[in-house]
Amino acid sequence: MNSCRGARTAMVVGAGVAGLTAAAALAGAGWQVEIAEVSPSRATSGWGLCLTGPALRALAGLGLADDCLAAGYGMSVITHVDVDGEPAGRARLPGLLGARRPAMAGIARPVLHRILHAEAERRGAVVRHGLTVTAMDQEGELVHVRLSDGTVRQVALLVGADGIRSSARGLLGLATSPGYHGQMVWRALVSRPQWATGIHQFAGKAGTAGLVPLSVSQAYVFLTENAVERSVLPDAELVPRLQQMLETFPGRMAEVLPLVSASESVVRRPVLTAFLAGAWNRGSGVVIGDAAHAPAPQMASGAALAIEDGLVLAEELGRHSSVGAGLEAFVRRRGQRCRTLVETSVAIAGLERAQRHRETYPLTEAGHRLMAEPA
């Protein structure tokens, strides 16, 4: 067994939210951490995400909650609008950082990555771009890791944080398959309307749409397209197609249409989920974040789960005398929480496809209540 009190060297695969958080938490606990990131640069794709209360709580554990609130847009309420344009309720999310702070924050994904990247490096983690892990073997107390440039590392811990299509997961001999749920999700980066001071979600006859503030000046529009085959559209069709679908939504979505027309950043992606049943660890290797559990975006909790993973991993390794025992404790502590969130997100996606929007609201609130409990 690997001693957590001995040579504490770690290789993290992937410099996304989970990988950078784990690297920062481990480095802060005295581990020597190296990150292998396949992307050749620090440039991050993606538009924006929600840092719910649990995400902010976990970021506070790294001393980063205030930085993220300052760089993003704090808010506490989700407003639901039904298919007829009538208000369907306002969900006030639990504030986990005290009454004087927002319950959640929208933030541009590149901004969040810059904050996490800087903190991981400040704590001593080394990020190497243009590299990934191609082979690994457990050799006594160490993991023998071969990188894509042909170099070799021997580390006490390997953390696979390389997303839903994780290659590290396969190298560890762990297997799960992403599931497609008949939905394509659209996102467009737009200027923030003055009235958008919280998340607005609109139920439509063929999908769900909404608006999430990211900063004082920016927001992103989302639309979930239901009962469609997984496909790729030409870039030139994205803006007009999104506008056409948004025209069917009631209320203030009409005010968003000119903003979408002016947007130069529109993406369309499949809604995929995954959950790795059983162990997430083998030997001294473990997978975290979307590599282990990827919920659908309807719960807005993927980032929270990933950030929590990084902190809990470092905590459990610090509480146990061996890496193996620490990893097993980590999986026990995280498994049911993450499974429930993934299953809840899948149930919400199914109800949306069936146009049973009102039944999704209590499920969403139940999921947020679960996430408000200690990680």
Architecture blueprint of SSEs:
Elements: E1 9-13, H1 17-28, E2 32-37, E3 48-51, H2 53-61, H3 65-71, E4 73-75, E5 77-81, E6 87-92, E7 104-108, H4 109-122, E8 126-129, E9 133-139, E10 142-147, E11 152-155, E12 157-160, H5 167-171, E13 179-191, E14 199-203, E15 207-213, E16 218-226, H6 235-246, H7 253-262, E17 266-275, E18 281-282, E19 285-287, E20 293-294, H8 302-319, H9 323-353, H10 360-372
Parallel strand pairs: 1-2, 1-12, 2-8, 5-14, 12-19
Antiparallel strand pairs: 3-7, 4-7, 5-6, 9-10, 10-11, 13-16, 13-17, 14-15, 15-16, 17-20, 18-19
Helix pairs in contact: 1-4, 1-8, 2-3, 2-8, 6-7, 8-9, 9-10
Report on this model:
There is one protein chain. The protein is globular and about 65 Å long. A hairpin with a 4-residue loop joins strand 15 and strand 16 (218-226). The protein is built from ten helices and 20 strands. The model has no long low-confidence stretch (mean pLDDT 93). It has one domain: FAD/NAD(P)-binding domain, CATH 3.50.50. It has helices at residues 17-28, 53-61, 65-71, 109-122, 167-171, 235-246, 253-262, 302-319, 323-353, 360-372, and strands at 9-13, 32-37, 48-51, 73-75, 77-81, 87-92, 104-108, 126-129, 133-139, 142-147, 152-155, 157-160, 179-191, 199-203, 207-213, 218-226, 266-275, 281-282, 285-287, 293-294. 35% of the residues lie in helices and 29% in strands. The strands form four sheets. The chain has an eight-stranded mixed beta sheet with strand order 6-5-14-15-16-13-17-20. The protein has a six-stranded mixed beta sheet with strand order 8-2-1-12-19-18. It is α+β, with helices and mostly antiparallel strands and 375 residues long.
